[in-house]
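Input chain follows. Return structure tokens only.
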Amino acid sequence: MNTSSFSENQSNTTYLTFLLEGNEFAVDVAIVQEILKMKPIIQKPDFPDTIKGVVNLRGLEIPVYDTRLKFGFESREMDENTCVIVLNLDKNDKPSKYGLMVDTVKAVLKISESEIISGDDSKFFEGSPMIYGIAKSDSGTIYILNVLSLFDENVCFSIQYK
């Protein structure tokens, strides 16, 4: 994983980037708790297809989303690069943890707000509420996620707050 910067502007936000089907996506590092190498996923029968199951993280069951399916890509077998990005979110004053299964983690980047264009301008994910914005890098386009739109909170809260 490499670290670089788009600009030295003080309004930069730091993002963790990852790949899905060769496309680069990003989440704000402020909500990233940790990155897990793939560990056993416990499947649950009543989960939607986009949730692979749960992983046990120090006694807490974390729902793991197949991020590929969320974006309309085909699911694939996990390999040595597959990992889970554990996100720590506060929703309705309740802390919640979610896992995003991704093809591979790529980099940590600083991106200025002025370098981000609206997600509505994306030709690939046009109008998707899951895309907050788009930035350009030396390696191409980075889709910055609107993380809250990725999760079905009713399923997640039922897992964590039984």
